[in-house]
C-alpha cells in the first residue's frame, strides 16, 4: 500500500475538495494527475514482480518511489493550497504528517484504518465545507455577492450608498469642501475603528490646520476594491456628494485586481455598451426623418463594437495576464514587462475616473500611491527586498508630468517616518500610526499643490 497513499489519494482528494488548479508551466486540474500516476504505479509493480531481466531495476525504482512518496505528496499539496515559496516550514510539516500516516497505514489494523478514514472525512470534508458555509454567510451579511462586492448598509458606519460614512449625502452642505477618498482596505481602514481610519484622520488634520472651507471627507473605500470598481461606484452615487476633490489611493494589488475584475465583468456582460441601441434612440428622438437609416447604422456600429471587443480580447491575451498566484506582478517583474498591463488596466480606469471627476462632477482629482511593508528598507518583517519591488513608483515618476491629475507618492514619508511601526504586527494594513502618517502627508502635498486651501502654518 505504501507508495501511493500520498501521491495517488491525498493529492487528488485535496484537489477535488478545493477545486484548485496546479501550475506546472501550464495550468492543469490536479485531479487529472490520478490516472497517469496510478497507472504508472501499477505498471511498475507488475514489472517488479515479473521475471523480466529488468525486474531488479523496477524494484529499485519502486523502492525509491515509496521513499519519495510523502515528499512528493507534500510538495503537490503545498502548491495547491498555498502560495509558494514563502516558507519551507509548512511543506516540511505536511511531509512529516503524510510520512506518519503512511507509516501508520503499513502497521494499522482494519478498525484503525476505518477510524482514520472517518477522521479524514470529518476533518477533511465536513469541517472545511461547514466552515466555508459559515464564512460565506458572514461575508454575504456584510457585502453584496457580485463582482463589485460593495458594502451593505448597517444603519451605523455604512450609509445607504454602501460607503463608510456616518451620515448621508444630504448631510453635506454647500459651504463644505467635500473630499471623496477612494481605494481598497487601506482606505476603508481594515481593523481600525471609524475615528482612526485614514480618511477620518485626514479630516481631523484639515480641521486642525483651519482649512477653509470646512473639509468634509467621505470614505468610498472598501475591501479589495480597485480603480475599476471605484469608478463604477463613483458613476452611480458620486454626484450625490458633489465632491470638490476626489483622491484615489492606489494599492499595489490594484494592478492585478483591475484586470481580473474587468475580465469577470465582461464575462457576464456588465461592461458591454450597446452603441447601436443608444444611437438608434438618439436618432429617433432628434431626427425622426432619418429612421430609414437605422438598419445601416445598426450594422456599422455593431461591426465597430465587435472589432473593439476582439481587440480588447487580443490585448488581454498578448499581456499573458498573470494568474492568481501573481497578484503582485508589478513588484515581481521589471517595469518593461509589467507596463502594458499597468496601462491597459489601472491607468485606463484612472483616466476615465479623471474625465468623470473633471467633467460631470466638476471637481479636481489626485492620485496617492503608497508603499506596502515589503517595499520599505525598514520593513516590519526581516525579509530581503525584492529586485523589482519599487517598479510601480518608478513608473509614476516617469509619467507624472504627463498626467492631468496630481500624483502623490508616500514612499519617502513612510521610509523616513520617525514613528514606527506603521503596520499591524500580523496584518499588512496600517495601524493607527500608519493612517495618521498617510493623512498628514497627503494633506501636506494637497496644500502644496493648491488643491486644498489652508492658512500657512
Mind explaining what this structure looks like?
With 457 residues, the chain is α/β, with parallel strands linked by helices. It has two domains: 5-107, no CATH class; 169-270 and 326-448, SGNH hydrolase (Rossmann fold), CATH 3.40.50. The chain is 53% helix and 8% strand. It has 15 helices and seven strands. The chain has helices spanning 5-18, 34-48, 55-81, 89-107, 110-142, 185-188, 198-208, 227-237, 254-267, 275-286, 294-319, 335-358, 391-399, 411-415, 432-448, and strands at residues 21-24, 26-29, 177-182, 215-219, 245-250, 364-369, 406-409. The strands form two sheets. The chain has a five-stranded parallel beta sheet. The chain has a two-stranded antiparallel sheet with strand order 1-2. Helix 2 runs antiparallel to helix 3 and helix 8 packs parallel to helix 12. The longest helix is centred in the N-terminal third of the chain and has 33 residues, at 110-142. It is elongated and about 95 Å long. Mean pLDDT is 77; it is low at 1-31, 80-88, 272-276 and 304-317.
Amino acid at each position: 500500500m505504501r507508495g501511493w497513499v500520498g501521491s495517488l489519494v491525498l493529492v487528488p482528494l485535496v484537489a477535488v475538495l478545493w477545486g484548485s488548479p496546479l501550475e506546472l508551466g501550464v495550468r492543469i486540474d490536479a485531479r487529472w494527475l490520478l490516472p497517469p500516476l496510478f497507472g504508472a504505479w501499477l505498471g511498475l509493480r507488475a514489472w517488479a514482480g515479473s521475471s523480466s531481466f529488468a525486474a531488479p531495476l523496477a524494484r529499485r525504482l519502486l523502492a525509491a518511489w515509496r521513499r519519495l512518496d510523502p515528499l512528493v505528496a507534500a510538495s503537490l499539496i503545498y502548491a495547491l493550497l498555498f502560495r509558494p515559496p514563502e516558507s519551507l516550514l509548512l511543506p516540511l510539516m505536511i511531509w512529516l504528517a503524510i510520512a506518519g500516516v503512511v507509516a501508520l497505514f503499513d502497521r494499522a489494523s482494519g478498525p484503525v484504518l476505518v477510524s482514520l478514514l472517518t477522521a479524514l472525512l470529518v476533518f477533511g470534508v465536513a469541517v472545511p465545507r461547514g466552515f466555508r458555509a459559515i464564512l460565506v454567510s458572514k461575508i454575504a451579511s456584510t457585502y453584496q455577492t457580485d463582482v463589485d462586492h460593495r458594502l451593505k448598509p448597517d444603519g451605523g458606519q455604512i450609509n445607504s450608498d454602501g460607503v463608510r460614512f456616518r451620515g448621508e449625502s444630504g448631510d453635506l452642505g454647500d459651504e463644505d469642501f467635500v473630499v471623496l477618498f477612494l481605494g481598497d482596505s487601506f482606505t476603508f481602514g481594515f481593523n481600525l475603528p471609524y475615528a482612526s481610519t485614514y480618511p477620518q484622520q485626514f479630516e481631523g488634520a484639515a480641521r486642525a490646520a483651519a482649512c477653509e472651507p470646512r473639509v468634509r471627507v467621505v470614505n468610498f473605500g472598501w475591501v479589495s476594491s480597485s480603480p475599476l470598481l471605484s469608478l463604477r461606484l463613483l458613476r452611480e452615487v458620486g454626484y450625490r456628494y458633489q465632491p470638490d476633490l476626489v483622491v484615489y489611493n492606489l494599492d499595489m494589488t490594484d494592478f492585478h485586481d483591475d484586470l481580473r475584475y474587468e475580465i469577470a465583468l465582461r464575462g457576464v456582460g456588465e461592461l458591454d455598451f450597446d452603441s447601436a441601441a443608444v444611437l438608434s434612440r438618439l436618432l429617433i428622438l432628434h431626427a425622426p426623418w432619418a429612421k430609414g437609416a437605422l438598419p445601416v447604422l445598426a450594422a456599422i456600429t455593431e461591426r465597430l463594437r465587435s472589432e473593439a471587443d476582439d481587440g480588447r480580447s487580443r490585448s488581454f491575451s498578448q499581456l499573458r495576464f498573470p494568474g492568481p498566484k501573481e497578484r503582485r506582478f508589478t513588484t515581481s517583474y521589471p517595469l518593461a514587462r509589467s507596463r502594458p498591463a499597468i496601462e491597459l488596466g489601472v491607468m485606463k480606469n484612472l483616466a476615465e475616473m479623471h474625465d468623470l471627476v473633471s467633467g460631470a462632477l466638476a471637481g479636481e482629482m489626485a492620485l496617492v500611491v503608497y508603499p506596502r511593508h515589503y517595499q520599505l528598507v525598514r520593513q516590519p518583517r526581516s525579509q530581503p527586498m525584492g529586485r523589482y519591488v519599487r517598479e510601480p513608483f518608478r513608473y509614476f515618476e516617469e509619467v507624472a508630468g504627463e498626467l492631468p491629475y496630481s500624483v502623490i507618492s508616500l514612499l519617502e514619508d513612510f521610509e523616513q517616518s520617525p514613528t514606527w511601526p506603521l503596520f499591524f504586527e500580523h496584518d499588512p494594513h496600517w495601524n493607527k500610526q500608519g493612517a495618521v502618517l498617510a493623512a498628514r502627508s497627503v494633506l501636506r502635498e494637497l496644500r502644496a499643490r493648491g488643491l486644498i486651501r489652508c492658512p500657512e502654518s
